[in-house]
Amino acid sequence: MMRPWFYDSFQCTADKCSDNCCIGWEIDIDSRAMERFREVPGEFGERLRGAIHNGDTPTFALSAGDRCALLREDGLCELILNCGEDHLCDICALHPRFFNSFGEVEEAGLGLCCEEVCRLLFSCSEPLKFLLDEQDAAALSAEDRDISCLRRGREILTEILQERSLPITERLSECAEYGWLLQEWVDNQENNRVIPEIPQKWESITDPESVFRLLNTLSEMESINGEWTELIQRLVRRQKELLAALPEFLRAAGEEWRYEHIAVYSMFRHFTGCISDGAVYARVMLACCSALTVMLMDCLVWLDKGKITEWDRILSTKLYSKQVEYSQDNIDAFIEEYF
Fold first, then answer.
1. What is the count of structural domains for the chain?
2. What does the pLDDT look like over 303-339, one tens digit per residue?
3. Which residues are paired to 107 by β-bridges?
4. Which of 16, 157, 268, 301 has the fewest CB atoms inside 10 Å of its own CB, making it the most exposed?
5. Nearest Cα to 266, choosing from 291, 230, 249, 241?
6. Which pLDDT belongs to residue 193?
7. Which residues contact 315 (CB under 8 A, 6 or more apart)?
């Protein structure tokens, strides 16, 4: 299994978290979990089954404040306290983990909707590294040629993003350009499976027209909450001011490696989808624009407060991930815009 270096050290902070994964989400319950829930005896068993909406896909009911009906006031889960973690449904047991298949190799990561994952991602400024088990490394030699070429393409995209001799805005733009070349390569049936070379010139994705398109795309997505709605309105309204301030922000407080990490990690998470949908460029843009959006969010905080803290950065990254990465409709909207 391929995974980020911090994957194995992740632990949920439970009631110490400022957020809660059991608030604001409509959680689907898998069939095996439903079978377990039907067998839970006694008063709690009745309460458990009464907290479920039975439809085509059963879900946990939400109480006031969009809280899961089994979430206690102290932030702990009644199901875990009464039955143990082995009774959780798949989503609750695995969140915030995600899993993808890239050819012969399974890949796993942790979603940036979780503040502890954001903390881990930002805990090291060195280029982000991924671990690969020995058996998976051996399996790479047996991969299909097309998959092997796409894997090499993602490696090159990562190398571009981690080339720290260039400013982060240039790296994001170069990465987007290479994504376009890869898309042309995928679309060309006569390419002899020779992937394109790294571009020597590229168009900026931080120019006013490109940023307007990005913010407009984000504005048209279904909003996860009022906080995101208010934020995206401010970003749109102050776009010109933000773009003018961005170079100074990056010089004074930007810590460019953070946006490099976001782009590289987003590439790891989302690029594999192009195997099934062919949307190479759109998925590369999703990674680049994830970093750019969080960068603009952080710049807005810096402008308003005159400074930016580690916690501010975590909150920006978490909110963006919740809004975009954890809504399939919003992911689809982005892919459709840039495909």
1. 2
2. 999 999 999 999 999 999 999 999 999 999 999 999 9
3. 2, 100
4. 16
5. 291
6. 72
7. 115
CB half-sphere exposure, 155, CA atoms < 13 A? 9
Confidence of residue 192 (pLDDT cuts 50, 70, 90): low
Nearest 5°: the CA angle 188, 194, 200 is 90
Same domain, 80 and 159: no
Looking at the domain assignment, is residue 325 inside a domain? yes
Give the DSSP H/E element, type plus range, for residue 288: helix 280-305
Q: Do 45 and 162 belong to one domain? A: no
CB-based contact 228:293 (threshold 8 Å): no
Q: What is the pLDDT of residues 271-291, one digit of tens each?
A: 999 999 999 999 999 999 999
Residue 106 lies in a domain: no
Section 6-27 average pLDDT? 88
pTM for the whole thing? 0.92
Q: In terms of domains, do 250 and 183 share one?
A: yes
Residues 6+ apart with CB under 8 A from 235: 215, 218, 242, 296, 297, 300
pLDDT at site 134: 86
Domain that holds residue 39: 22-94
Which one of 72, 94, 116 terminates a domain?
94
Among 94, 126, 154, the domain boundary falls at: 94
Q: Is 48 inside a domain boundary?
A: yes
